């Protein structure tokens, strides 16, 4: 696969954001396969409000978010806040493709997919209303908080300019099945524990996660035994080969690739 965007495809367009959309969508359609079944992705003929691509075989849908620069940073701009929240709670919300490219030479630095089941309200930030003088006065946009997304959810295709093997990509997608889309409460707890793990070292101790007890108690006020719930979630992650138990309350995160 070629990881350089073809800027010549957008020669007839003046708007920069439109140019980027044309060349990144073209690259994705030619190079990215469905991480679930391995089939090539197809572009919707007329862009749907909630998706850009689909898999003809397994019916998964995908929305592309592109950014130029050296990193995604802490957040990336998205669309309507109201629609994003509705999308999270719907049954047909898309998976998200995040593509980062070098602005100078248009080389793709990294590209990964985040499965839809990892999209919870915690990663959607509400932006301020547009001013009365704006064309869309009162409209409220959103940001996707990249920093709040657990690392396990990032199914990479390109990492540090290098392509991963197809078998590794599809295996990493399978590993994300630990979180079930149809059980919001269970999904929320696992998501929260994974997010806590994101904030500690690759090797950590049970006490490191206990430090988040008060934070978790605020998010789950009906649970009166937070420490027991933490241990339960760590056991689930261990049973699903996300974590390796080292003994004496010590854990290590398995390499994803």
UniProtKB/TrEMBL annotation:
A family per Pfam: DpnI_C
Record field: transmembrane: none
InterPro entries according to UniProt: DRP, DRP_C, DRP_PD-(D/E)XK_dom, WH-like_DNA-bd_sf
Residue span(s) of domain Dam-replacing protein HTH: 186-252
Name recorded for this polypeptide: Type II restriction enzyme
